[in-house]
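Quick one, T. Sequence first:
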Amino acid sequence: MSKVPAQNRPRSFFPELSEFFEGFPSWASMRPAFGSHIIRVEDETKEGGYEVRAEIPGVDPDKDIDITVSDGVLTIKAERSEKKESNGRSEFSYGSFIRSVTLPAGADEDAIKASYDKGILTVSVPVAEAVPAAAKRVAVESAK
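Structure tokens:
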């Protein structure tokens, strides 16, 4: 009875690295996409306020956009569906988008306003002057 020698294939660094990333979602599923278009989101801190702008063309803001705020996090959700018919054929395209941003300290969650004009969603958040907290010293106890 002859033994077949075990094959010792050298393992390169790259397969192990790819195995490490197998448990993570693909980059394509992580990007905020709307159909085949990437949604551009900008945020800016202005004097007395914080503003978030998102390019979301082709939606009905009353039906397709949902904005919520909870525990200092602003979340924008949008969904678009489109149906095209020509020559007896119909084509559907749809997509959804969700983006969350952490509001700055002093944000007035009750006074947030949103507007939609020419495909641009603008969310304005009034921000009061944040008073920096005084530094506190914490005593360290040694184990005995």
